[in-house]
Amino acid sequence: MAPSGRSWLSALAEQGSRRHAGAILLAIPLAALVVLTIRLHRDTAGARANIAHCTTGVGGALELAFGKRPSELAFDSDVCGIGFAHTVGNVENEPTPMMCVDDKYKLSGPDCTVISIGVAYNFLFDDTMLARGCRVFSFDPSMAPGNYKRSSRHSFHHLGIGTKDGAHVGESTLYQTYNQRVTQYEIVTLDTILSTIVKAESVSLLRMDVEGAEWDVLQSWVESGVFRAGKIKQLMLEAHFFNADEVQAQGRILGQVAQQMRRFWLSPNRGSGTDAARKNQRLGSWGTKLDDDVVCARAYEIGFVV
After folding, report:
1. pTM score of the predicted model
2. Kind and range of the H or E element at 236?
3. Buried-most residue among 42, 66, 165, 178 (CB within 10 A)?
4. Measured distance CA(251)–CA(5) in Å, rounded
5. Cα–Cα distance between 122 and 197 in angstroms, integer?
6. What CA–CA distance (Å, rounded) separates 2 from 254?
7. Spatial distance between the Cα atoms of 269 and 239, rounded to a whole number of angstroms
8. CA distance linking residue 69 with residue 294, whole number of Å
């Protein structure tokens, strides 16, 4: 018995629906595969760009500054006889900063004066220097209002370091604070700190970790003769290379500092490699290790002495 016209049309429609559904089911995984391929390509390209920034960019900047690859720039015993490493606490991604405790640098006792810029609630360095008998002056405008005085030889100031005295307004590199990112805060120059707060012509040791705001300050110190005048006997710097377009200029600034002071220590910040680079190489918080002596990092601890 031949099917009725209605039955024939129904069967045809059902068959077409099945084919359409099959096509949709086939298209779904194909579309997902295309999206995944695009994402993998984008992530790989991002990782390569990040690796290039860390190695060719930052590595090249450090080589420009110091004449050697980062892997060749560790502790220089020709410059500093005795290095003293201080802990930064339970911050596994941070390197252990090094200071030079040769007798001539007077990092103990009443003749020792220390400026610590960029505390972020971590007073371990400041406490270390207080335990050595130093006077310590701490600065951080991002911390919540409060009394942070650690001892009779310590003072804390809600001030940032700058190239001029006054209010800093605009883009900020400060940490997220107790309630919001600080975009306006008071800044002072090193000369103002020395003359009105420390009340001395020079400082035994200055530590600075200001999350990328260091470059204008360092340039101003070079140009104004801070280093040549011996106002800073020892500098512990965390140098941040966040912007790929600026690393060569930053390398030149470090090179100018190195002409007026002597570098004795350099170590990569373990947590400063980019996420894409770390995931690409599966090497955890050390950043990206490309071979036996190349570590991808965008921040370095650097020690200088006069």
Report:
1. 0.77
2. strand 234-240
3. 66
4. 83
5. 21
6. 92
7. 9
8. 9
